[in-house]
Prior knowledge:
Elements: H1 2-7, H2 27-35, E1 50-53, E2 59-63, H3 69-80
Antiparallel strand pairs: 1-2
Amino acid sequence: MEFECTRFKAEYPIFYKVDDNDSNVAPTYKFLKSSKYGLFGDGPKWNFTKFLVDRNGNIVDRYAPTTSPKNIEKDVKKLLGIQK
Length: 84
């Protein structure tokens, strides 16, 4: 967590490290990446791939690792029904 916060300026909750691309993949991550494919298939291009999930557990969108959480704000507000 210290690495992500200092090196990448992560200002959002960071949980714990999970396996994402091998036989021990975490069940939640397996569901996320199989539900919304990225540009190059289901495997993440790099750390910090982001998923937007609605209140019913449906995957709404998937964002590249380089997408800033600030750039996702409009999509989150739309999903919550918050007008700007």
